[in-house]
Amino acid sequence: MRHPAPAQCPATEESHARPGPLAGLKVLDLSRVLAAPWATQILGDLGAEVLKVEQPGGGDDTRRWGPPFLEDGSERPDAAYYLCANRNKQSLAIDFARPEGAALVRRLAEQADVLVENFRTGGLEKYGLDKATLCAANPRLVYCSITGFGHTGPYAARGGYDFLIQGMSGLMSITGRPDGVEGAGPMKVGLPVSDLFTGLYATISILAALRERDRSGQGQHIDCALLDSQLALLVNQGMNYLVGGVVPRRLGNDHPNVVPYRDFAAADDYIIVACGNDGQFRALCRMLGLHEMAEDPRFATNSGRAQERRAVELALARAIAPWKAADLLAAMAEAGVPGGPINTIDQVLADPQVAARGLLQSMRRADGTPLTVIGYPGRFSRTPASYRQAPPWLGQDTEAVLAETLGLATEEIARLAAAGVVQCAAPRAARQDAELPA
């Protein structure tokens, strides 16, 4: 089955010119992979100036995490994984394992409002880039550390990865098909949600610390851990245990509290039914011709339906099975019953609602290579997110930042590059086929 191409919105001159809500904020990004780069990309989308410091020669690990790669004619193209979390940043390739490189990063930190890093606990001390050293030199600095387990506790020295955290946090124990059915067993979520949740919590924490700095004039250290963040996102399942004392289990696509709230098989596809209140359930029953169920006092409340889950879901499954999925969803929408399809990625990116919201943005890299990105989801009435710079290639901005921000002479930058302390990317020829859609 062919699907229409995603509708794209070009990054307009207006969005480039209009300052975002974080315009003027300077962020030094010493991170790689996903959790911390996700946080700094959000800050960049909202107008902050983000300087991403990477290791010369290789850069962020995710530049190689492909295929797929963005084909741009270079010998080492960047992977899609890197491109998802590194727009609105400038790339500086500085080897801060060497004293001269570390000194450059310390100078950049003296001018920064925010520093974000995701090295193991204590990993930056030997370079003089730890929170104590940098915050002493710049007391207004908000220094955010992102690790697997935080800077305290018996696991502080361990490395943490998303898959590991999904398992340790209990998330995988409630994700997957229930015991006793085909395919039963724990399952990770299809996205690195523990990384992404931590990036979001880090962003919120940074903005809160900046707001407090407005009053006190002092920065502070923020310690964000993947395990802590994922534990906080256990939400109702965690409270179900704390209040009810029963350990939550895998339910497949069933909801632990709400009935009906799951997928059902129509004649030609699966659809989702999500009745969040009693009125919606009654409307669904009437629409399906289940008038007796709509009036049955056993099913009048969610509590009653939860006790009779099996009977409710079997009756609904029988009534839904003859319907074509599109016809059923249209009838549900008219009846005010929440529901929807189970889209593939290509289908949702081509959805008219996605186009209407402008969620796909067209950008182009400095050499003209076109790139479509999924944009920032929040809508600001006066100071919207912007798409000023596509994800940079390694060292793209080293020379310009060292010259303009630190005042280094061209000869000094050339000396540092020759010594391997920094890497300055060679300019690439502009592509001739890089026109953005109008």
From the structure above, extract its key features.
438 residues; alpha/beta; Rossmann fold; 2 domains; three-stranded mixed sheet; 18 helices; 13 strands; 36% helix; elongated; disordered C terminus
Give a brief outline of the structure.
This protein is of the alpha/beta class. The protein has helices spanning 13-17, 35-45, 80-83, 99-110, 131-137, 162-168, 193-216, 226-232, 235-244, 278-287, 291-295, 302-307, 309-320, 325-335, 345-349, 352-356, 398-404, 410-418, and strands at residues 9-10, 26-30, 49-54, 90-94, 114-117, 142-147, 221-225, 261-265, 270-274, 339-341, 360-364, 370-374, 422-423.
3D architecture notes:
The chain has about 450 residues and is an alpha/beta fold. The chain folds into two domains: about 10-235 and about 355-425, Rossmann fold, CATH 3.40.50.10540; about 270-340, formyl-coa transferase, domain 3, CATH 3.30.1540. Helices cover about 35% and strands about 15% of the residues. The protein contains 18 helices and 13 strands. Strands 7-6-5-2-3-4-13 form a seven-stranded mixed β-sheet, sandwiched between helices. A three-stranded mixed β-sheet has the order 1-11-12, with no helix packed on it. Helix 2 packs across helix 7 (about 195-215) and helix 7 packs across helix 8 (about 225-230). The protein is elongated and about 85 Å long. Residues about 435-438 have low confidence and may be disordered.
Helical fraction? 25-40%
CATH topology tier name of the largest domain: Rossmann fold
Question: How are strands sequenced across the largest beta sheet?
Answer: 7-6-5-2-3-4-13
Shape: elongated
Count of beta strands:
13
H/I helix tally: 18
